[in-house]
Amino acid sequence: MAFIDEVYCELFAGRGGNGMASFRREKYVEFGGPWGGNGGHGGSIYFIGDEGKQTLADLRYKKHIRADQGEHGKSKGMHGKNAEHTYIRVPLGTIVYDEKKTRFIGEVTHHEEKLLVAKGGKGGRGNIDLKTHRNPAPNMAEKGDPGEHVKIHVELKVLADVGLIGFPSVGKSTLISRLSNARPKIASYPFTTLSPNLGMVEVEDRSFVLADLPGLVENAHQGFGLGIRFLKHIERCRVFIHVLDASSDDPGKDYQSIRKELEAYDPSLLDRPEIIVLNKIDLCEERVPEIDILQDDDVIAISALKKTGLDVLVHHVLDVLDRAPAPTTEQQNDDHKTYVLEHKTTDFVIEKKDEIFHLSGDKLKLLFERTDFTKDEAIRRFARQLRHMGVDEALRKEGAKHGDIVKIFDFEFEFLDG
Ligand SMILES: Nc1nc2c(ncn2[C@@H]2O[C@H](COP(=O)(O)OP(=O)(O)OP(=O)(O)O)[C@@H](O)[C@H]2O)c(=O)[nH]1
Ligand SMILES: [Mg+2]
C-alpha cells in the first residue's frame, strides 16, 4: 500500500434528531399534557490510534466521512436513540489541522486514544421538556442541532522510539528485518526504501518501535535524494541508530555528512540520543581496528547480514531509551496554543446592505437551526431568544426601525419594535 502522510478530508458529524410535539390523549387521563420525547444526539466522528497502521492511505479514499443522525423523538414521551459514533482508525503520530493549517485540532499519539474531530449535534427537546410555568402545554418542539462540518488537513509524522538513519544502502532495512516483524524491501541499489516502515522489536519482556527511514544524502535538506519529504519523520524518534557501512571509504566522514544534514534541517536533532552502529563488519573484519570512528567506545560493530552483534545492540538501545526524553509531539509545541485561541465563536453579527439588516453568527445560527419555522409558537420563542441575546437592542443601535426587513440566513422577518 502506498505510503501517504498528508491528506485532506471533509467530515460531517450527524445531526441531532428532532424533538416531538405531541399531546397525551387517553381516555382516563383527565388533562392531556405535552407528551413528545427528545431527539437522540447525532453521531460524532473520532480518530482513534491504531499501532498496526503505518500510513494515512485509508483516508485518501474516504474524502467525505459522515456520521449518522440521531433518531427523532417520539410520542408517548419516548426519546429517539442516540446515533452511534463513527471511528476512523489512524496511525500513531496523526496530526489534525483545519483545512488551511491555521488551527491545530489535535493529535493521536497512543494506541486506542480517541480524538474528537467533528461533534454530533444535540438532539432537539420534545414538548415535555419545553414546558414551563408560563407555557405548560407548548405546541412545538426543537429541531436537532446540526452536526459539525469540518474540512481538515491530516498529517502523519511517524512516532517511533528509535529511528534508523544513514546513507542509502548501509543496511538499515536489513537491520530492521533482523530485529523485528517488519519485512521491507532490501536491495543493493540506493533508495530501495521509499517510505518509513515500522517494526516492533521484542527484547525479553520489553519492546520498542523501530522505524526504518529512507536513506539520506548530502544536501537532502535542500531536496536532494528523497529530500526533506522524509526528514520530518525523523523529528519524532526519541533515539537514533546511525548506521554506517564499514566497507565505505571513510565511515567517519560519512558520519559527519549525515550529522551536517540533520543540523541543516533542525539543529536540535544533534542533541537527540544516538547510537552509532558500524554495519557490514563481515566484509572487513581485518579493517576494524583501523576505522577511526571505532576508537570511540560508543560505536557498536555488527553484521546485519550475518546477525552478529545484534544482541549487544538491542540491549544498548533499551538502556539509552530508559534515559531518553519523552517523544516530542505537537501538543507540547507552544506555537499551537495561539492557533487554539484564534478559534472564537460569535454570538451574532449585524451587517446592513441595501436597507436590509443581515444577521449571522455561531450562536444565532444554532438557535435558528433548532427552530421549527412551521410553528408560530416556535417562531415566537425564537424571537424571544434573540431579544435575550440583545439582538433587538443592537438592531435599534444600528438604526433599525419598526417595519424594516431583517434577514437571518434564508428567512426574512419584519423588525417589530414597540
Ligand atoms: N555483507 C553485508 N551486506 C549487507 C549487510 N547489511 C546489508 N547488506 C547489504 O547491503 C545492501 C543494502 O541493504 P539495505 O538493507 O537495502 O540498505 P538500506 O540502508 O535500507 O538502503 P536504502 O533503503 O536504499 O536507504 C543489500 O544488498 C544488503 O544485502 C551486512 O551486514 N553485510
Ligand atoms: Mg532500506
Can you put this structure into words, describing what you see?
This protein is α/β, with parallel strands linked by helices and 418 residues long. It has three domains: 1-156, GTP1/OBG domain (Spo0b-associated Gtp-binding Protein, Chain: A, Distorted Sandwich); 160-328, P-loop containing nucleotide triphosphate hydrolases (Rossmann fold, 3-Layer(aba) Sandwich), CATH 3.40.50; 349-414, GMP Synthetase, Chain A, domain 3, CATH 3.30.300.350. It has nine helices and 18 strands. The chain has helices at 57-60, 172-179, 231-234, 251-265, 310-323, 335-341, 362-370, 376-389, 391-397; strands spanning 6-12, 45-49, 64-66, 86-90, 94-98, 104-108, 114-118, 149-156, 160-165, 197-203, 206-212, 237-245, 274-279, 299-301, 349-353, 356-360, 405-408, 411-414. The strands form four sheets. It has a six-stranded mixed sheet, sandwiched between helices. The radius of gyration is 31 Å and the shape is elongated. The N and C termini lie far apart (68 Å). Residues 334-342 have low confidence and may be disordered. Guanosine-5'-triphosphate (GTP) binds at residues 168-174, 186-188, 190-193, 214-215, 279-280, 282-283, 303-305.
